[in-house]
Design goal:
The chain has 396 residues and is of the alpha/beta class. The chain has 2 domains: 17-46 and 295-392, Aspartate Aminotransferase, domain 1 (Alpha-Beta Complex), CATH 3.90.1150; 59-293, Aspartate Aminotransferase, domain 2 (3-Layer(aba) Sandwich). The chain contains 14 helices and 13 strands. Bound molecules: pyridoxal-5'-phosphate. Residues 110-112, 115, 136, 138, 182, 186, 211, 213-214, 241, 243, 251 line the site of pyridoxal-5'-phosphate. Its EC number is 2.3.1.29.
């Protein structure tokens, strides 16, 4: 017998989501997540992955992953602090620190648990965190978990940040105060104004934490948004993922040796969850080596991003204010957004709809993620399909 209360709860809420067009159906890929994907036997141009540089299925990374698996095994066998630290993990962390130009770095099993662990390792209930209102869910959860007072700051509003920083500091109620922001905002593609953030942080002695999940590999010739602005010495936490442009899985914080030493004794996912697999660590190292040696993939990513944006803009779509390859097509109504995405799929283009609660109500969008792996022919086909479906559904 299963719980009657639980079953009633699930039935009611699932029905409600489906009726409101807010229920997300999961599509299963029958092969790698490349510029083309196969779902239910149908081959589609893929405009929805975070695989910015095409590394997720890159032969060079796969070879390194296989070699490391042969040498170190499929699993690390323990958490990092027992005996799950293998030389490949140390090598990865040294590589990240070098790439980010910081004293040290610590790797986690995912970006999500990195935020859960790193924020709460440093902040506690005597502290306050100023947080951009559009920050990623993992930041929101990490802040909550820390027990610190969370103060939402209007999106990219430096006057609001300054006013709230001043008020928070002058209240004398808090021990430490942090400002936390995405480096690149994943739903809109805008870039955090780090130069002004650093000025405000210096004025009020704020701890700065930049989640560069969508900036790493994309901004700063690959090294991220902090590097893009040349602020490596001014940002306390350079957090990022190994799951997006790097193409594998994992998360990290790069910073001072003291910060990393502390995270390695206090960040709970580091202490209580088994390390990254050796194969994943080796593939990440290879990705960073490739990015350090050449900007070929990075340059192609940006070229493709510009090409797609220009094309959609000319067709009359609202593509928002993205400053990066992330290209949202803002449609508004949730049901229409989902229908739009469904029609694109039927026509051979996989571009996922993103609706409330991932983005605010009535800002439903189809989000396009061009990558270095896309060809011009694929992007032209995407544009032709958008034109057809846009006309059909009276969006343009
Ligand atoms: C994707 C993302 C994460 C989570 O990273 P994973 O490695 O996928 O767990 C964290 N923060 C931001 C801003 C993200 O976009």
């Amino acid at each position: 017998m299963t719980s009657h209360k639980l079953n009633t709860f699930l039935e009611k809420n699932l029905t409600e989501l489906k009726e409101n067009g807010l229920y997300n159906e999961i599509d299963t890929l029958e092969g790698p997540n490349g510029s083309e994907i196969t779902i239910n036997g149908q081959t589609l141009i893929n405009m929805s992955s975070n695989n910015y540089l095409g590394f997720a299925n890159d032969t060079r990374l796969k070879e390194k992953a296989n070699a490391a698996t042969d040498k170190f095994g499929v699993g690390a066998g323990a958490v990092r602090t027992i005996n799950g630290t293998q030389s490949i993990h140390d090598e990865l962390e040294a590589k990240i620190a070098d790439f980010k130009q910081t004293e040290a770095a610590v790797a986690f099993q995912s970006g999500f648990n990195c935020n859960m662990g790193a924020i709460s390792a440093v902040m506690n209930k005597k502290d306050a965190i100023l947080s951009d209102e559009l920050n990623h869910a993992s930041i929101i959860d990490g802040c909550r978990l820390s027990g610190a007072k969370v103060i939402r700051v209007k999106h990219q509003d430096m006057d609001d940040l300054r006013a709230k920083a001043k008020e928070t500091i002058e209240s004398g109620q808090y021990d430490k105060v942090m400002y936390i922001t995405d480096g690149v905002f994943s739903m809109d593609g805008d870039v955090a104004n780090l130069p002004d953030i650093v000025k405000i942080a210096e004025e009020f002695d704020l701890i700065t934490y930049v989640d560069d999940a969508h900036g790493s590999g994309v901004m700063g010739k690959g090294a991220g948004t902090v590097k893009h602005y040349g602020l490596q010495d001014k940002i306390d936490f350079q957090m990022g993922t190994l799951s997006k442009a790097v193409g594998v899985v994992g998360g990290y914080v790069a910073g001072t040796q003291n910060l990393i030493d502390w995270l390695k004794v206090r960040a709970r996912p580091f202490l209580f969850s088994t390390s990254l697999t050796p194969g994943a660590a080796a593939a990440c190292i290879e990705a960073i080596d490739i990015m350090s040696a050449s900007t070929e993939e990075h340059d192609r990513l940006w070229e493709n991003g510009h090409y797609l944006k220009e094309g959609l803009n000319k067709l009359g779509f609202n593509i928002g204010n993205s400053e990066t390859p992330i290209t949202p097509c803002i449609i508004g109504d949730e049901k229409l957004t989902q229908l739009f995405s469904k029609r694109l799929t039927e026509e051979g283009v996989y571009a996922k709809s993103i609706v409330f609660p991932t983005v605010p109500k009535s800002t439903g969008r189809v989000r396009n993620m061009p990558s270095a792996a896309h060809t011009k022919e694929q992007l032209d086909q995407v544009l032709a399909t958008y034109k057809k479906v846009g006309n059909e559904l009276n969006v343009i």
